Amino acid sequence: MNENKIPGLDLPQEWPGAHYYDHEEEEAVARVARSHSPFRFYGPDLQGEVDQFESEFAEFIGVNHCLGVSSGTAALQVALAAMGVGPGDEVLLPGYFWVSTVSAVVRSGAIPKLVDVDASFSMDPEDLERKISPRSRVVIMVHMGGVIGHIGKVMDTCRKHGLLMLEDCAQAGGAHQFGKRAGSFGDMAIFSFQLNKNFTSGEGGAVVTASRELYDKAFAIHDLGYCRKKDGRLEFNDPNYQLWGIGCRMNEFIAAVLRVQLRKLDAILTAMRDMKHRITGLLASCEGFRTREIPDPMGEGGGFLKMIFDDKEVSHAFLEGLVKNGITVKEGGLNPVHMTGWGLHIYYNVTSLVHKTSICGHHPVWEWKENSWASDANYTKGSCPVLDSYVERTVLFCIPSKLSEHQKDMILAAFENICDELKLKKAL
Fold it and tell me: What is the overall mean pLDDT for the chain?
């Protein structure tokens, strides 16, 4: 093994969209700066970048309405509020998420209920059916790693029980399942444009929906609690939209960059999918592990490869082999990583959830009178046994969106070397 060791490749971090920045993004920012009008609703020479992005992104997703906001976390908060989630309600979500998903539920005053995952690492429709209660109001389907799980079955269950479904597409910008885009399945969906996302403006987010009613509520909540007139001024007299806003508007700089990045999204996803499929094609001749189930491999985001091993010791040995073969990102990165080290993506690593704390330090939502029925809610390890087992045995490799041919060849050689060393190749 040592004589075949590959020097460190110094792989780029998994920042898909950022690697595609060039003069177009620079010009987009400069255009807004020259206009002296960075606020979306008015200014001396308003460019209408947010309006245009919202229109273009809604068309791209295949929905009627898009609302630009300041972050994916804000998008979650706005969407849940527009859906009417509050004290006394239960929101069902998978135990595999990013912390922002569950934190938005708690900040809404509602109770999160964890649902286990299936082999797609997405919500298990059968466990969802078992977990629904009279308090259930919204189901959040989280497309982690750009993969849409068995969303049709989840949607059927929601309709059967009269529940709303929110898609968390923070990691799934541009993904689709058999031609239908992530974000177009549920009643509402959210996106994040933070640095780690498929296309990025550094921060930013969006709420999309086919419902005019949900959009109008979301609009008021994302702003100051009221609608706006065509001239950008607030409308105070509509009794349907006299709410409380959280001021998380998207600005013109963010939208201008996103409009450029959206045009590059297909190229970004194609690059990641192609490389991932080359790796999975090589791994098809191996045994002792399986890759994550993906209902539509041609529609996934392509940025995350999960290898679920039969034996957890072998999974750690495989990770060690990747690192020894030079498969690491630049200093400070986490790629590749064993899922036991995947931090706030796993429910039992979120200590504020496990200990049921509040945002202000006292009176957590589980103690509120409206939520007294949930006082014994438990989020400790063991709440999602299927996910727990997968986490103990899974290695995650993030596919960089820009690789040289040399880097691609060396990555493939490293995977093949490790499979040989661990004797994972299938007998002929």
Answer: 95
* Spatial CB neighbours of 49, under 8 Å, sequence gap ≥ 6: 28, 32, 40, 252, 253, 255, 256, 259
Q: Does the annotation mark 131 as catalytic? A: no
CATH number where 191 lies = 3.40.640.10
Active-site entry in 197, 217, 264, 306 = 197
* Residue ranges making up the domain that contains 101: 20-261
Residue 5 pLDDT: 45
pLDDT (average), residues 387-409: 96
* Mean pLDDT of the region 145-158: 98
Structure tokens at 232: 């950008």
pLDDT tens column, 54-82: 999 999 999 999 999 999 999 999 999 99
The answer to whether the peptide bond before residue 295 is cis (omega within 30 degrees of 0) is no
Whether 258 shows a pLDDT value over 80: the answer reads yes
Number of domains in the chain: 1
Place of tokens 């849409």: 148
Residue 182 to residues 156, 213, 300: CA-CA distances in angstroms? 16, 21, 9
Res 311: pLDDT: 97
The CA distance from 71 to 275, in Å, is 29
At which residue do the structure tokens 């009176």 appear?
Answer: 363
The order of strands in the sheet holding 304-309 is 289-291, 304-309, 394-398, 337-338
Span 289-344, pLDDT tens digits: 999 999 999 999 999 999 999 999 999 999 999 999 888 887 666 789 999 999 99
CB atoms within 10 A of CB 180: 16
2 — pLDDT class (breaks 50, 70, 90): very low
Beta bridge partners of 207: 67, 190
Closest among 384, 405, 318, 335 to 113, alpha carbons compared: 384
Decide if 306 is inside a domain: no
CA distance 396 to 6: 20
Cβ atoms within 10 Å, residue 36? 10
E runs forming strands in 194-352: 205-209, 227-228, 234-235, 289-291, 304-309, 337-338
Would you say 171 and 151 are in contact if contact means Cβ atoms under 8 Å apart? no
Per DSSP bridges, beta strands 90-94 and 136-142 are parallel
- Tell me, yes or no, whether 111 lies in a domain: yes
**Residues in the chain, overall count:** 428
